[in-house]
Amino acid sequence: MLTRLRDRYRVVAAVWHPVAADVLATLSMDGRITVWQLRLDQPPVQWLSVRSPAPGAAAMAWLPEGRFLACAGDDGAVSVWNVDTVVRHAQVLGRPSQCVALHAAADDTLHAAYQDGTVRRTSPLLQPGRPRSQRFPPITAAAWSPSGETLAVAHHGGFFEVHDRDLYVRWTGQVATDAPLILAWHQDNAVVVADRAARTLTAFDTTGTVLWKQHVAPEPSAMSITGDLLAVGCVNYAPLFVDLTTGTLLAG
Predict the structure, then answer these.
(1) Which of 5, 50, 80, 210 is buried deepest, with most CB atoms within 10 A?
(2) Chain centroid to CA 192: how far?
(3) Residue 119, exposed/middle/buried by CB under 10 A (0-12, 13-18, 19+)?
(4) What is the pTM of this model?
(5) pLDDT tens by residue, 133-155
(6) In this structure, what DSSP letter does residue 93 have?
(7) Rounded to an integer, what distance in angstroms lies between the CA atom of residue 32 and that of residue 46?
């Protein structure tokens, strides 16, 4: 069942609650952060709505227990909101570069990847302290595996690589495209790479072996994974759904 959210502006980021399966947080182009409860056969219920300090494209992540929601604006600063009190807990991790991915580890440590190639880790719940940083060449996309043990990053020219928890390269790959790639993890076992120009989805295991490849008619613009199901957002089209075990397109 497809549900349309009552949002006046285009949604640029969305993350499911780590505990409550029917709770979704979205970030709109105008900087509005909204938490929704989605139930079958009922209209979406808006739990809370707050304004991000910096509107624009961004990344979001729930901290593991689901009480705090982290959001990065297009100015690179990361804010953490307490969703129980609707109070902004902290704002740090700023970089003069757009944040392309956020991940919250089991101990609440936040990891952030920026377009300038910086990967930063900060202490639990953004307590005072200097974040640790490492640098890659500039990146266009990044995604952590669900456990946070593995990081995939994409660079210009269709080049991408997978790193271990210490950010050492495990394997590299490349597709013939000039368009920015899109990355998503299937559990900790496989990374899905979407080539927007060729309109293809390719799944690789953790050694870089191709598991399957699927062509899609509309241009992919975003990917989200739950269980063995991949939802592919497409430009000006309804989402597509893919069985991640086989790469088979499912009926909408």
Answers:
(1) 80
(2) 13
(3) buried
(4) 0.84
(5) 788 899 999 999 988 889 999 99
(6) -
(7) 12
pLDDT value of position 94: 63
**Exposure on the CB side of residue 1, measured as CA atoms within 13 A:** 9
213, 201 contact by CB (below 8 A)? yes
DSSP class of 125: G
CA distance 58 to 74: 6
Q: Is 215 exposed, middle or buried (0-12, 13-18, 19+ CB in 10 A)?
A: exposed
The number of CA neighbours under 13 Å toward the Cβ of 34 is 21
130-161: buried (b, 16+ CB within 10 Å) or exposed (e) per residue? ebeeeebeebbbbbbbeebebbbbbbeebbbb
Please give the Cα distance from 161 to 228 (Å, whole number). Answer: 23
Give residue 188's region: left, alpha or beta (phi > 0; psi -120 to 50).
alpha
Please state, in angstroms and rounded to a whole number, the distance separating the CA atoms of residues 162 and 30.
Answer: 33
Q: Which helix (H) or strand (E) holds 226?
A: strand 220-226
Question: Left if phi > 0, otherwise alpha if psi is -120 to 50, otherwise beta: which for 208?
Answer: left
Determine phi and psi for 156, rounding to 5 degrees.
-65, 150
Write out the two tokens for 53.
């300090």
Sign for the pseudo-dihedral over CA of 154, 252, 227, 4: positive
3-class secondary-structure state, position 169: strand
CB atoms within 10 A of CB 75: 16
Q: pLDDT per residue over 208-238, tens digit each?
A: 999 999 999 888 988 888 889 998 987 766 7
Spatial distance between the Cα atoms of 142 and 153, rounded to a whole number of angstroms = 4
